[in-house]
Amino acid sequence: MKLIINGCEVEWASERVFAELQDHPSYGYLFEISADRKRIVKCIHISPTDEETDNTDEEARYFERDARQAVEEFLRQERDGKYCESVRATSHRPREDHARGRAAQAEVD
Fold first, then answer.
1. Cβ atoms within 10 Å, residue 95
2. Rounded CA gap, 39 and 42, in Å?
3. At 16, which helix (H) or strand (E)?
4. How confident is the model at residue 24 (pLDDT cuts 50, 70, 90)?
5. Is 10:71 a contact under the CB 8 Å cutoff?
């Protein structure tokens, strides 16, 4: 299952959850999850997901809060069974659209 929650694309990565910020700057966050899949244990990896990011550790840690909140909501929805097929089908934004969106945003900035 892959969902877009609060501007983050969130999905399972084996027994962990990966959250990627969709807007620039784009970072990916990998979270270790408890065995019962109810809570985040810790963020175990942060990395830029685009080559244009002039990232700093401080900036990446700042956006970790947003990714963490999206993962917490993802786990809650999965646990409560509140997602549905239509949400899953429309929540995934293809990578090409994501890249075009970032390019368009860069032109505006």
1. 9
2. 9
3. strand 16-21
4. low
5. yes
